[in-house]
Design brief:
single chain, about 325 residues, mainly beta, Tachylectin-2, Chain A, 4-stranded antiparallel β-sheet
Length: about 325
């Protein structure tokens, strides 16, 4: 799917390179607050998930209104008593992942245990979205049972609310150059304050119902933060990571990473994410300079109320685009 080459020199340079913010205007998109995952469909079309429902919405970049919407209820078959799947990450085919965590009260919610895939096609400006295979429901069990993950005590983590200390919460998902997936954990943070990345070796088989092959965990230094989004950029052969607090309070930062377990990410200086609560990042096809950033605005105030509590027609989420230097190339 993608090529891999050694990029240690480029990574070392990122710590001293500032991102350009001359194009960092905020854009607001309509119809939802809790944007939680996004992927590019074309140069100007993006598809966004909302962790409050099971609908994927298509937007034309820079235009606030929804262009198309696709309900996944029939495909995901959520629990009728708790229908929210809590979609948190996306990467192309497009693979999507839910949080696999409990609800905010620490109660088990099986509807949040899904790894699935879709394909998209665009013809005459219209998007067709097609689910692939089946929605896999056993990933959390596979992770808990993996002996190489035993030291993280995921059995206990899976009983804790996702945003409490030690909770279980997957928010990042990226495709690797060798057709694996990387899971990026917002929570738990390791005892040494590192963020957890776990590979899945056989995603194409998993979405056809086969058991997930869990790889060796990777611990990366993100200054005590968890992973909110991770995206591989093929042209640069770099992963871009937005890190943030495992809970609601804290700052966000942008990092680049080689993907090599022995290499820590480097922070991209000069990036001001302002008040955005970043949940997704992506590059549009053919553009490796402009990083697009999506904010989960469920807690943002609109006319004095939390966004998700206002009339759905008044709900919105914010996005921003940054020009990322080519790090000396």
């Amino acid at each position: 799917m993608k090529r891999l080459r050694v990029i240690g020199l480029i990574l070392a340079m990122t710590c001293n390179t500032a991102a350009g913010q001359q194009n960092a205007a905020i854009i607001e998109y309509s119809d939802m607050c809790d944007a939680s995952a996004a992927a590019a469909i074309s140069a100007d079309l993006l598809i966004v998930a909302n962790d409050e429902d099971n609908v994927l919405r298509v937007y034309r970049r820079g235009q606030p209104k929804v262009a198309q919407a696709f309900s996944l209820d029939q495909f995901l078959r959520p629990d009728p008593d708790e229908p929210e799947a809590d979609i948190e990450g996306a990467t192309r085919i497009i693979y999507w992942i839910t949080s696999h965590g409990q609800n905010k009260n620490g109660k088990d919610r099986p509807s949040r245990h899904r790894l699935f895939a879709t394909t998209v096609a665009v013809q005459d400006g219209k998007v067709t979205l097609t689910p692939v295979g089946t929605a896999y429901r056993d990933l959390r069990s596979d992770l808990i049972a993996a002996p190489q993950l035993g030291k993280y005590d995921l059995t206990v983590a899976a009983t804790i609310a996702p945003e409490d200390p030690g909770g279980f919460n997957i928010e990042g998902l990226a495709a690797t150059p060798d057709d694996r997936l990387l899971l990026g954990f917002r929570n738990p943070i390791t005892e040494k304050g590192k963020a957890l990345v776990v590979p899945i070796g056989n995603p194409k088989e998993v979405i056809l119902g086969k058991k997930a092959q869990i790889g060796m965990p990777i611990e990366i230094v993100l200054d005590g933060k968890g992973i909110r989004s991770i995206e591989f950029n093929q042209e640069r052969n770099l992963y871009f990571i937005v890190a943030g607090p495992y809970g609601d309070v804290g700052s966000f930062a942008l990092y680049t990473w080689s993907g090599q377990p022995e290499k820590d990410p480097g922070i991209v200086k000069g990036v001001d994410l302002g008040t955005l609560s970043v949940e997704a990042i992506y590059f549009a096809p053919g553009d490796n300079m402009q990083l697009h950033i999506i904010s989960d605005d469920g807690g943002r105030k609109i006319n004095g109320k939390d966004c998700k509590k206002v009339d759905p027609k008044a709900q919105s989420f914010r996005a921003m685009s940054l020009i990322i230097p080519d790090f000396g190339r």
